[in-house]
Amino acid sequence: MSTQPSADVETSDPTSWRPRLALLVAATFFMEFLDGTILTTAIPSIASDFSVAPADINITMTAYLVTVAMGIPLSSWLAERFGARRIFCLAISVFTIASLLCAISTDLTMLTLSRVAQGMGGAMMVPVGTLVVLRGTPKSELLRATAYLVWPGLLAPVLAPMVGGALTTFLSWHWIFIINVPLGLAAFIAALRLVPRTTFDAKRRLDWFGLLLTTVGVGALVVGLETLGGHASNVLAVLVVVGGLLSLAGAVWWMKKARVPLFNLSVFGTRTFRATSTGGFIYRLTISSVPFLLPLMFQDGFGWDPLKAGVMVAAVFVGNIGIKPATTPLIRRFGFKPVLVFASFASAVTFALCAFLDAQTPEPLIFALLLFSGAFRSIGFSAYASVQYADIVPLQLPSANAISATLVQLAAAAGIAVGALFLRLFETTQVFGADEGSAYRGAFIAMAVLMLISTADSLSLHRNAGAEVSGGAKRN
């Protein structure tokens, strides 16, 4: 996909594993992931200050998530055209300045526009930061590198409600954004020191039509899925989702025939990368539904208060972090295929067991089940994050990275939407009974079945898939 660099070139990239660089990129990811959901607990306070209905504040969250999703496709071209180091530093600057603007917002319009600017910065930080790390990491160290990059996505969802709630309660909602300013300044200074200068092509053309079709398609899907998550019967939302899929199909058709396409779609010819858009997408979708379904089940189905439900859900994330040091050794010991099969199948089992929970189930037993569910979640996330790049050659890396980041965003949005759809389906049909917990039983069983599709996809991988990265010997 890349062409020969022009005269406007930075120095060549180093090819050595840099833990401090990976940690810096992971920290910026954490900021981006955290700001995607941290506003939830501050909605009543913001609504009161702006004299608007709490439901109206949701537009600030949607605007941020949609901007991130739509901006990712362009980030790949920006990194190749202007240099990954330059764009990564720019992304941190935009995110930090936008955070300050969010903090000083005086009305909903200003806050929403500032959140859009924040999303633009986040859209560049995520894929370009990953690209910076992966380009300088040899295949033998890829597992270690991705281990650094995965933790923000595991930790941010559990910290967001607690951090947002604490800042809003003891200070004010403005501090949710003010805290990003010193963190952003520190990240910018560190980026100038740690991010290597890389080659870039100052004459690289942009596939404008491919970009238009891709961004419209991604944006429509995210908006449609977000709407479906709240209004399952919304016909307009379904039409928006269909329109998004058609736009993405058009983008694929165009990029297959374009002379200089936005993305090099040949990456899908690599089976280990293709796993991220098949079984990996289903895996992330089902996993993303859990933080949505569990708190609702505990509050609506069990009658728990929000604090008790939140503490119990934290067990999932305790499992995420607790197993993290063991994920790399597990992959090196058994290889990608067995680990992916185990993680997805074990996750399906935990989902099925969640369907049998009720208000009389001993709380330590619920906590233990969610702890194991979180551990299996972490193992699968780490394995997919590493195996997708195992057989990607350097020229394909920018496209593979941007496509993967886009799919992650879509899977997160789809997880909530599909979870909500299943709840409404089983609430209406009463297949699993008419009591308050019946819809949740149906939703968790449906998610378990979906997860088994990921298991089947992993079973179709070659037994030595990603062996160069896992470091394991060829298995007979």
UniProtKB/TrEMBL annotation:
One of its GO terms (molecular function) is transmembrane transporter activity. InterPro entries: MFS, MFS_dom, MFS_trans_sf. The chain crosses the membrane at residues 21-47, 59-80, 87-110, 116-134, 146-167, 173-196, 208-229, 235-255, 281-298, 310-327, 339-359, 365-387, 407-426, 438-456. It is found in: Cell membrane. Its main location: membrane. It is a multi-pass membrane protein. GO terms for cellular component: plasma membrane. Gene3D superfamilies: MFS general substrate transporter like domains (1.20.1250.20), Multidrug resistance protein D (1.20.1720.10). Keywords: Membrane, Transmembrane, Transmembrane helix. Residues 21-466 form the Major facilitator superfamily (MFS) profile domain. PANTHER family: MAJOR FACILITATOR SUPERFAMILY, TRANSPORT PROTEIN HSRA-RELATED. This is MFS transporter.
